[in-house]
Specification:
Layout (H helix, E strand, L loop, with lengths): L1 E6 L4 H17 L2 E8 L25 H9 L15 H13 L2 H13 L8 H8 L6 H9 L8 E2 L2 H5 L7 E4 L2 E4 L3 H12 L22 E8 L20 H12 L3 E5 H6 L10 E5 L10 H4 L2 E6 L12 E4 L7 H10 L4 E4 L3 H9 L5 E6 L27 E8 L2 E7 L1
Parallel strand pairs: 1-2, 2-3, 6-11, 6-12, 7-8, 7-11, 8-9, 9-10
Antiparallel strand pairs: 1-4, 4-5, 12-14, 13-14
Helix pairs in contact: 1-8, 3-4, 3-6, 5-6
């Protein structure tokens, strides 16, 4: 389902609306159609209004916006911003991003640039910098902005917006309903009514973990594979974002949120692109070579930890905790013990297959989440969810099936040791 959302980047209510829209995406699997509305079009002069002070005997009360922020558990970033920044060019950049299918990532990046960094998002050079790593053809986006290629798609306040039934931004169009400046509870209720019930993607929402181990975290693997057991669609060092569906991606993020940390090999991290920003704040990357994509949001937006060996020549890096365990080969028992000492109780392991294989061999995996995608890859040497050394017949490990759910053409399996 596609949910249109009328918005403007410079509106504080829309800063809240960004995260409400992302909740809808995660919970209901909808697509957000970001519709451009400009609060300060060129013909409208900017005029600041002086706040009339309250009488000294009037008790303080929260504004509607403050109440919304409290309801959503948010705090508005206190970053100085230019008061008369237009958003016309930011909306045009977004319209171009739609042609490449990367509008969601760019929308979030522009909102963050304005609200968290105070950038002038109407400047073309600023937008080009924001779009790096998101938009493929920056020159084409720049040309689209400079020629006003998508200017006709930007709706002006007030008269044009009012003619379309938009009096406030954000306005969520859900079925026949328009919800403007509403808390997520109201938006969600409308979505449930429109969808005809609760989303199937409530799957795994009930999971709560406690760590039974004294010296290491509780660890679970979350992987997606083809019917024939392969975990890639292209080469081993390429992205696998097209292997699972949007539902699988959504549930992956939900499982990330159940963990204190996510753990991944450097090769898998390089293949995932620079925009992967997990739900867990602690992000652990395993490497011996030090070939780590430091510019990835996986590392820049969280608490980065590097697992490596004593023999590796990886230099210590400011803001990155380096754990060296084992001389030439990684000592997983020591590494997990050191991770546990940091207060990390639950770890979500996301591959690749060699790391999974090492942890399985040592019996350090407590649970498996496996999505079976309706695809066939083939290949004698194509990686599966776990590589490593083959176990002898008598050592083959047994896991118990906890749940199995079919959503569309995918099957979501959960196993416990």
């Amino acid at each position: 389902m596609k949910i249109p959302v009328a918005h403007d980047y410079i509106c504080p209510w829309c800063w809240v609306g960004l995260f409400q829209a992302q909740k809808l995406q995660r919970e209901f699997g909808v697509t957000i159609d970001w519709i451009a509305y400009e609060l300060l079009p060129e013909h409208m002069p900017y005029a600041s209004s002086a706040k009339v002070p309250d009488p000294p005997n009037r008790p303080p009360t929260l504004s509607r916006f403050a109440l919304l922020m409290a309801a959503e558990g948010m705090v508005l970033p206190l970053v100085p911003k230019l008061p008369d920044v237009r958003s016309f060019n930011a909306h045009q950049a977004t319209e171009y991003a739609k042609t490449e299918g990367v509008q969601d990532a760019l929308v979030e990046a522009i909102y963050r640039a304005f609200w968290e960094e105070g950038k002038n998002i109407n400047k073309v050079e600023v937008l080009c910098e924001i779009a790096k790593g998101i938009v493929t053809d920056i020159d084409a986006m720049k040309e689209a902005i400079l020629t006003d290629q998508f200017g006709i798609k930007v709706v002006d306040f007030d008269d044009d917006a009012h003619a379309k039934g938009v009096y406030n931004v954000p306005t969520f169009f859900i079925g026949e309903k328009r919800l403007a400046e509403q808390p997520y509870t109201a938006i969600r209720k409308a979505m449930v009514e429109f969808a005809g019930g609760e989303p199937e993607t409530n799957h795994y929402s009930e999971i709560e973990y406690e760590n039974p181990h004294q010296n290491r975290p509780f660890t679970f693997v979350n992987m997606v594979s083809t019917i024939d057991g392969k975990i890639v669609t292209g080469d081993r060092n390429e992205s696998v974002s097209d292997l699972g569906s949007d539902t699988d991606h959504f549930l992956m993020r939900r499982l990330e949120s159940k963990a204190d940390a996510v753990l991944v090999g450097a090769n898998s991290l390089r293949a995932s692109g620079n925009n992967w920003n997990p739900e867990a704040h602690a992000r652990i990357v395993v490497t011996k070579s030090g070939n780590v994509p430091w510019e990835s949001k996986f590392l820049t937006n969280g608490n980065p930890i590097v697992l490596t060996t004593e023999d590796s020549n990886i230099p210590d890096r400011k803001g990155v905790l380096t754990i060296r365990a084992g001389k030439s080969e990684l000592d997983w028992e020591l590494a997990l013990s050191e991770i546990h000492k940091l207060g990390i109780e639950i770890v979500n392991v996301l591959g690749g297959s060699e790391i999974n294989g090492q942890l399985f061999e040592l019996e350090f995996i407590d649970e498996i989440f496996l999505t079976i995608a309706p695809k066939i890859k083939l290949g004698d040497h194509t990686p599966t969810i776990a590589g490593g050394n083959p176990l002898a017949r008598g050592d083959v490990q047994r896991f118990n099936l906890v749940s199995s759910k079919t959503i569309g053409d995918e099957i979501f399996l959960r196993y416990q040791k």
